[in-house]
Amino acid sequence: MAITQAMCTSFKVDILNGIHAFGTTVARGGTTADTFKVALYTSSATLDATTTAYSATNETSGTGYTAGGNTLTAVAPTSSGTTAFTDFNDTSWTTATITARGALIYNDTQSDKAVAVLDFGSDKSSSSGTFTIQFPTADASNAIIRIA
Q: 26: which of 15, 34, 53, 96 is 20 to 30 A away, CA to CA?
């Protein structure tokens, strides 16, 4: 079992098919952005570029954590130079007693389609405290989702 950080291959295809809406989109009749979530996983999970959708298998459990994870607040898509990017605001689970090795960002609006796998590098824990995922700076060099 392993967690390997990656933008999911199925997400790349979905982008070309116009599946995900990170902001208001005219192509989908001016609809608002989809709802994206992040779920936490134990070291027993297998997550990588081939992951196609959210699954509860080997998802973290514990006090202060609800299956399916947290809803993310998206940063409006933009560009700088020749790179388009979007990101998410940091998210936290408060008064949580949990351990996670990684996470999956997925599109709750679009049948839980996978977006990206996050590898924490080792188990991270909180004990009756706050467990936070801190996303990188939303810019062309660091944003969690970049198309160059």
A: 53
Q: Which long-range contacts (CB under 8 A, 24 or more apart) does 28-33 make?
A: 33/74
- Is residue 27 over pLDDT 70? no
The backbone torsions φ and ψ at residue 99, rounded to the nearest 5 degrees and listed phi first, read -130, 135
Distance CA 112, CA 20 (A): 11
The per-residue pLDDT for 28 is 61
What tokens does 141 get? 């060099």
Helices (H) and strands (E) in the chain, counts: 1, 8
Contact 85, 137 (CB under 8 A): no
Rg (CA), the chain: 15
Q: Write out pLDDT tens, residues 80-95.
A: 999 999 999 999 999 9
Distance CA 36, CA 105 (A): 7
The pTM for the full model equals 0.94
The pLDDT value given to residue 23: 80
Q: Is 15 helix (H, G, I), strand (E, B) or coil?
A: helix
